[in-house]
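*** Residues and shapes ***
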Amino acid sequence: LIKHRHIAEALVRMPALWISRGNGQEHLTALRSPVLTGAGACGAFMMTEDAIPLRSTGFCNVNQLFEAHGEGAERIEVLAGPRSVLYGSNALHGVINIVSPSVDQENKSILSIEAGGDDYYRGSLLHKGSTTGIDKQPDQHWLVNVSGVGDGGFKNHSGFDQQKLKLRHGLSLDHGEGDLSITTTASFSNLNQETAGFITGHDTYRDESLKDENPNPEAYRDARSQRAHIRFQYRPDPHTRWSFVPYVRHTEMEFLMHFLPWKPVERNRHTSGGWRLSLERDINTDLTLLAGLDGEYTRGELKESQSAEFSPAIPVGVHYDYRVRSSVISPFVSLNYRVSEQLSVAAGLRQEWLEYDYDNRAGGASPCDVGIDCRFARPADTTDHFNKASWQLGVVYQFSEDAHVFMNLARGYRAPQTTELYRLQQGQLATDFEAETLDSIELG
């Protein structure tokens, strides 16, 4: 990959995708869509690392790509359009998958050090090693990928420090009854950012003296993430492939919402665990079956508070303070059938059941005094369920090795995010939101 300083520099090269770059490591995403903002907007895109979502269903963040180790990736995959059959909720407009470096390649070590203007420094180390098994011991491979960056910032009172670490270990077993490979991956990230705001006013961009100005020197964002998964891949015979991937993850973030006039502070975190289980089977030379079952359990919390006086409708103190427990179970099946040498047909179906168990810890339905038309509304404790199906049907006709046509019909969906359901605003009284669906027709 290119040595991008921001994920937008790498992904702007991809068709159908636009990453709107913010200050520091922040960004907004558009993938066959407008640039979506606001609570829950990030739920329209599935962001994954090695095909495992960076965040739990219902707990996305618009800037979540900075938690992935994109700087040290082997490649980045972009799948445009609904992909809910294989990825579930949030794969509404598409998928961005950060692929880690493989552990089964040659041994090597790469050290990189950079320096630039505005006190910019970056260093990275990639080391791959291996041992060859003897006396029936398995071959083993490992990888260490660490990177760190310090940026003094172009604007006054801005900049960030960020560190990322990835550890991988792989081994292969051949015990006479099939091939088994086990790959363990652990990822860690830490961001401490002094966020700069954008100057405003008529033709301010023409005034060179204002280019370094930062109207929000008090803004900041601190974020940490830890993720780990183990990928078991088993081939009992040449026509059968099992995959089982248990995973755990934890994220926490604190930031000043400087883009709001009253500038509250938000603190959020969630801890989750789950699995992805799949079976791929060649029924015959023309028909392949892929079936699986995904599951996940999450405990998350969010607190928003304000320290400065603003107005009676936007009071000092805690605006929101809640916990959410969520659980997901989701089976899927996909068939790929080669009708002839030129014609292939693929079809898939997924059913997903999602439950949110919400607990309001702030007390009361409003932080405002009685009689005030308050900006914030807190729903009462509740349990919400979402049950949705997605499907896909595709046809490919190949005229030659260099020419083919295709048609793809698909339905994607996303469940409401917890911030949409439980951080209600003025005039909202209930959490009876529906899941969002998107139907797509592609010809090419």
In short: The longest strand covers residues 317-338.
